[in-house]
């Protein structure tokens, strides 16, 4: 199957990135507008459709309301433009799998995951060891990791257990909160860690699902690399 080559306007790409973020946050346009001072619902509608551009101040305000940074929205817009402009087989495969509700995400290393905040586009980078199929609803920059070690093997609940060798699907788009399973990089560490993030009595903790392993107290900055949303091919039990 051959797709026609198209070019996407930059405003449209940025609008689509904003729309995806809003939908991921489960916000309607009016609800998003309530969080903003400079933009109303009609302005958001024009922005998402690519009919209105954004000032730097408005982009910063929008990004904050969506729980992200302006640079991340711009990178996601770049990825959308690259998808549409590319005539590669990889981009075609991505579009086809999206049409059938299936995603292919790259399996990357834990070191690469730790650098994920600076990555432009996980799909186009070509750094994945192989592509992993998932039916989980994930954002454009989702990726997969192979679990190492036994700290996330849960002896109490097989549905929420990640034995060594499991493949997890990670979505940097998702908002994280207490109770979320996250991938994060600790300050001054090259690799990332996979733990449950818990806030308790004013403390921030990274908790293993295996009680034989120690809980980490977060007393230094961490780099959030994504929420674990599924095992391949199995959705995470809430």
Protein model, in words:
This protein is an alpha+beta fold and 238 residues long. The chain folds into two domains: 10-85, 434 Repressor (Amino-terminal Domain) (Orthogonal Bundle); 101-235, Umud Fragment, subunit A (Ribbon). It is 32% helix and 21% strand. It has eight helices and ten strands.
Might you state the CATH topology name of the largest domain?
Umud Fragment, subunit A
Distance between the termini: 39 Å
In total, the number of strands is 10
Report the CATH C-level class of the largest domain: Mainly Beta
Q: What do we call the CATH homologous superfamily of the largest domain? A: Umud Fragment, subunit A
Classification by helices and strands: alpha+beta
Percent in strands: 15-25%
Helix content: 25-40%
As for the number of domains, it is 2
- The overall pLDDT, averaged over residues, is 79
Outline: globular
Summarize the structure.
This protein is α+β, with helices and mostly antiparallel strands. It has helices spanning 10-24, 29-34, 41-48, 56-65, 70-85, 89-99, 110-114, 122-125, and strands at 103-106, 131-134, 143-146, 167-171, 181-186, 192-200, 203-207, 216-217, 222-231, 234-235. It contains eight helices and ten strands.
Question: Can you lay out the helices and strands and say which pair or pack?
Answer:
Layout: H1 10-24, H2 29-34, H3 41-48, H4 56-65, H5 70-85, H6 89-99, E1 103-106, H7 110-114, H8 122-125, E2 131-134, E3 143-146, E4 167-171, E5 181-186, E6 192-200, E7 203-207, E8 216-217, E9 222-231, E10 234-235
Antiparallel strand pairs: 1-2, 3-4, 4-9, 5-6, 5-9, 6-7, 7-8, 9-10
Helix pairs in contact: 1-5
């Amino acid at each position: 199957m051959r797709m026609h080559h198209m070019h996407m306007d930059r405003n449209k790409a940025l609008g689509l990135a904003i729309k995806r973020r809003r939908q991921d946050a489960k916000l309607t346009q009016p609800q998003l507008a309530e969080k903003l001072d400079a933009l109303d619902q009609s302005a958001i509608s024009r922005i998402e459709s690519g009919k209105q551009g954004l000032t730097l101040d408005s982009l910063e305000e929008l990004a904050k309301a969506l729980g992200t940074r302006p640079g991340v929205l711009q990178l996601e817009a770049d990825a959308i433009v690259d998808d549409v402009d590319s005539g590669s087989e990889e981009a075609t495969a991505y579009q086809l799998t999206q049409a059938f509700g299936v995603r292919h995400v790259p399996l990357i290393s834990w070191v690469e995951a730790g650098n994920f905040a600076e990555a432009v586009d996980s799909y186009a980078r070509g750094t994945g060891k192989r592509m992993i199929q998932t039916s989980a609803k994930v954002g454009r920059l989702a990726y997969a990791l192979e679990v190492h070690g036994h700290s996330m093997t849960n002896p109490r609940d097989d549905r929420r257990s990640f034995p060594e060798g499991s493949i997890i699907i990670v979505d940097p788009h998702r908002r994280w909160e207490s109770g979320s399973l996250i991938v994060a990089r600790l300050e001054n560490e090259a690799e990332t860690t996979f733990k449950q993030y818990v806030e308790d009595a004013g403390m921030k903790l990274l908790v293993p699902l295996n009680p034989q392993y120690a809980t980490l107290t977060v007393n230094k900055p961490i780099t959030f690399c994504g929420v674990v949303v599924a095992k391949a091919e199995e959705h995470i039990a809430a």
